[in-house]
Design brief:
Length: 330
């Protein structure tokens, strides 16, 4: 009888302890929040959701959450949040890197990469390795993977004939904030207006801006076709975006966690690139089907305007010109 009571008491103790054991495990898990300005339906966010699923399947003690559309941190504040210890992971652009490492500003040059394959040759080889080392040592940020964000095109709320930069003169075009974004805007012939991505739809609808520029997949995911009449295929930036983690967070991960994070990050980037490239094959026709005009301008005129704008510009004085040539010939 005593044995039965002892056994029952043991079961009761175990039952009472179970919630506390579960809670302790949950408390010991490493929390990683990733912030991005990408719309929820964009391929970048969907790739991050796949990364989350892979990390859950790996069961290495990581609680991973994805926060799209600047719902956690406002666009432009994510990188400082990483560096201050207020955020674990975010998407990061070459423009944000150049704000702290000016000699790498040439990665923001219009018409730098010819296409996705050129971008991949650069970032998947020694050029990319040198870039990642510089960011790690000088910014305290680890680049886990490089995603293809797409090729940026101009869209306008009212249709016009556009053959070259002169036809966009005076156009109030939304662009992200930063001196090199503004210089890029001038190469397009526009009057650049800094504005966060979540504000763009309303600004187009009300006429606060005349247009914006983004990869067409983001243009579509943000439903900007509802407040636009025309897309102009300027193809001015073939854009990478990095999945970046605060170095102190990375350094605290154990070997199994690091391996799982690296594997999931690279798999997400591979999936995202493939999905976006497939989408780009059909998206122009999809946009036309929505009733928008699509114009292909004279890209030679835009490239020549870019060459003139970058020559001698203050924003380019810190650039590593040998590095620029290295990327152009990759």
């Amino acid at each position: 009888m005593q044995t039965r009571r002892t056994f029952a008491a043991g079961l009761a103790s175990a039952a009472c302890a179970a919630p506390f054991i579960t809670a302790a495990v949950a408390q010991s898990a490493t929390t990683i929040r990733v912030s991005t300005a990408a719309p929820p339906s964009d391929f970048l966010n969907r790739a991050l959701e796949r990364m989350k699923a892979d990390l859950e399947a790996a069961n290495v003690g990581i609680q991973f959450s994805v926060h799209p559309a600047s719902t956690l941190f406002r666009q432009g504040t994510e990188v400082p949040a990483l560096q201050r210890g207020n955020l674990e992971m975010c998407s990061m652009t070459t423009f944000e890197v150049a704000q702290q490492i000016p000699e790498l500003g040439y990665f923001n040059r219009g018409y730098l990469f010819n296409d996705h394959a050129h971008l991949r040759r650069a970032f998947d080889g020694p050029i990319g390795e040198d870039y990642r080392k510089a960011v790690s040592s000088r910014m305290g940020i680890e680049i886990l993977a490089t995603h293809y964000l797409g090729t940026r095109q101009v869209s306008l709320r009212q249709k016009r004939n556009v053959k070259g930069p002169a036809d966009l003169a005076g156009t109030k075009l939304r662009m992200p904030a930063g001196p090199e974004w503004l210089l890029l805007g001038r190469t397009l012939g526009v009057a650049p207006i800094p504005l966060g991505m979540p504000e763009v739809y309303l600004a187009l609808k009300t006429g606060t801006i005349d247009g914006q520029e983004n990869p067409l997949s983001i243009f579509s995911a943000a439903k900007l076709f509802e407040v636009s009449e025309q897309v102009v295929l300027t193809s001015h930036v073939v854009q990478p975006v990095f999945l970046a983690m605060a170095k102190p967070v990375w350094d605290k991960l154990n070997p199994d966690q690091k391996k799982a994070v690296e594997t999931a990050a690279k798999a997400a980037a591979t999936w995202g690139d493939t999905a976006r490239l497939d989408d780009e094959k059909t998206i122009v026709e999809t946009i036309k089907g929505r009733g928008l005009a699509v114009e292909t301008p004279d890209l030679k005129l835009f490239r020549e305007a870019a060459d003139r704008a970058y020559t001698g510009a203050d924003a380019t004085k810190a650039w590593d010109l040998q590095g620029l040539k290295r990327v152009q010939s990759a």
